Amino acid sequence: xxxxxxxxxxxxxxxxxxxxxxxxxxxxxxxxxxxxxxxxxxxxxxxxxxxxxxxxxxxxxxxxxxxxxxxxxxxxxxxxxxxxxxxxxxxxxxxxxxxxxxxxxxxxxxxxxxxxxxxxxxxxxxxxxxxxxxxxxxxxxxxxxxxxxxxxxxxxxxxxxxxxxxxxxxxxxxxxxxxxxxxxxxxxxxxxxxxxxxxxxxxxxxxxxxxxxxxxxxxxxxxxxxxxxxxxxxxxxxxxxxxxxxxxxxxxxxxxxxxxxxxxxxxxxxxxxxxxxxxxxxxxxxxxxxxxxxxxx
Length: 297
Description:
TIM Barrel
């Protein structure tokens, strides 16, 4: 299992909008310390009732900036709300990031869950599941030379024009977030991995087993399972865990044990979110690197 970080790497528990303070130096520090990925989010509009404006910067533009300031760390979006974007623009932006980063880009995709964004863009919220599927097909086709697409709500391609650039390697991984208004069988067949929300160990193990049992029905290779985790890391290494929103307030010893348990049930990557962290961010990153990262690969 590998460990990543959700951007912004800062505490903003009392606000829906982060300050983005020291955002570049903290991303650079994360790479130096050995974290395997950083994750930004696609939040087209600030919806206060939702409770989190993400990193506020456009995810593609921001990751383009970070591409030039990092060298090895994977760069992920978790996740692009496909029905809110034309898939041709998404495909071009994603392939550009993948090329500029040397193949380090990973793209989570979702149907979107902030209702207020849909009427603002004159898009039908109730039909977002179908929009997600058609955008997914469009993005997949864009990696081909002079692709052909018929009967797609976003447009048709007849093979006379191409979408450039192409991905750095065969394709950009598309990780489905949640169910995105699809059933588990669709997620298992079409996604290159599954990103799901934190759940208790029993429920998460059930989700992973159900999904992984479906994969061999349509393909030969297994796929990764990823999840976020909000962490408030305490100075006392033996601090006993207390539940917080989608995560835990805990010392490093229990956090390490909990991550081992996630690994045992089949989780391949955990993206730690420090939004509710009460200790110094830099000290927290140092502690995670010194006492945690070496135990996971």
